[in-house]
Amino acid sequence: MKIIRPTLKRIIALDMHPDVFCAAALEGSDPATAKTVWIIDRLPTLQIRKWAKKKLLTTDTVVLEASGNSFEIVAILKQLGIRTIVLESQQAGKIRNNYCNDDKSSAVKLARAYITGLCKEVWTPDSISRDRRELYFQYRNAVKDSTRQKNRIRSFLNEHCVRLPKGTMLTQPTGLNTALKSKRWSFLQEEIIRDKFSQLWETEKRRKHYNHVIAKEVMNDPQMKSLLRILGIRHIIAFTLVAMIGDINRFATHKKLVGYIGLSPTRTQSGNNKEGRSGGLVLKGRKDLRSLLINSAQNALTQKNSPLHKWGWKLVIKKCKNVAAVAVARKLAVSIWHLLKGNFTPLTEIPDSLIIKLRKITGLIGSKEIKKKGYKTCSDYILEQSQLITGAT
To answer: Which of 7, 75, 139, 263 has the most crowded Cβ, counting Cβ within 10 A?
Structure first.
């Protein structure tokens, strides 16, 4: 009787670059003895769909290291019905430290590293989460550009021993007039100042536009709106949290979410020291979410109505404000997990802090768009949205 052996599933490793990529196919379940079936080098990245249709099978598993275009590659291969896995770059990148490091060997080593089962898999965001992340990055870049332009204006004025009065609004035409009147400028210097203010106003226009779009997106999404009931969280943070977290069900416990954000303390234990000791933050995970939540925690420490105010200030007295802010941020992350999981109960009354947030968000959206939704006044819109968020009647 002839024994038919099942064919081994292939692992296809891709070493992706913006212009070209390399692919290696391996068969076997042991990383040391896995057989290299074929290697293809220096194919154009733009032809990956055509190449995948011709070369790959639906039973293949494709792995690649997280990079700038990895999620787009996953989307292309997913349309073809091919399972694709993105590996965490910091851990998978260590395979490049061997004596031989070129695209071919890197692809083979990446496949062997995946077979070991030690590489961490990166969650591939859905199309909505990807769009939201890209929008947030555009907003963040606009904020950085605006701050950079302001600093350039102040630096130029400082070179000429000019200090603008406190309260001067650089983003308004009055700021330009104040700068021009502060000193007798030459024709060329005046042109430089006008150009710098023009660049600032352009970046500020972009920032306001993205802020407007984010405000509308928050009010159209029930999950984002629900986060507004937490003190210290406004529309930008709510939008960023949902964009980065994506499906909350991928975090089995609140500790998983805390670790993903990077708010878990380090712990060292060795030898006879059974208890070990705790240190600072792990400093891994989503740095953008961590910084936003720490800013929210610092805001919560200043609000006496916040339930975390008294608890946080006990830590401030006992340790320091920075440690307290991180601890409050960790509690905020736990609250966010429970809220997104639907574990919060309705409120008996609408808090004033929520009304203030909704007023500011409504101002960003604009009364014209509010009336297009069928509301007579912005107050009617704010009242209805506050009831939907809190569950109060």
So the answer is: 263
